[in-house]
Amino acid sequence: MPSLVGSEMCIRDRDNITSHIKKSKRVSVAVHRFTHKPLLAALKRASKKKSQEVRFVADDDIYWSGMANYVEKTKKIECYNRAANPNIVSGVGANMCNEYFNVQALKKSGADIKYMETNQSLFLLHHNKYIVFDLKDGSSAVHCGAGNFTAAAFSKNFENFYFITIPEIVEKFKTQYNYMWNELATAQESLPEQQVLPTGKKGKK
Asked: Sign (positive/negative) of CA torsion 135, 140, 143, 149?
């Protein structure tokens, strides 16, 4: 089921995602940007239920967008309080500090969170944007496409989205996600204490 452009079609896709989150026993999410509140709310609800599992892999730029604003004096991430943090960092790469709080809210709700360690200075990003639904009826499906999980993508951008139920294709997405989760992604607790980019022509710090 493809959707190509237009806010009305994109709203349909958003509603399709949230309804399938409700129907799933496990939801596996891969994101680059993550600011869309209805999607966050649906994932939080699922994360709180013992009958549902949420796995979530994000670009580590989301994590560092928050940690760049950690203030030792207050022991808090201060993205908006300029009195406490005169040198507010709006974001790292394409990601913004508010995305850090969105992911932390999801983690607090019970979701399993991991990050892909990337190098935004060389534009080496975790640019995946898809969700694998393992449904309670035993079937599976995938949402994927060009759009990030942002309000703009589901309201005004020209995007393409696909909802896939073909078993052979869904299994390929599952295999990719499991490889990313088990072999490539890093749990938040295992991330380095400081952001260190690999040395290189543009990545040198």
From this structure: positive
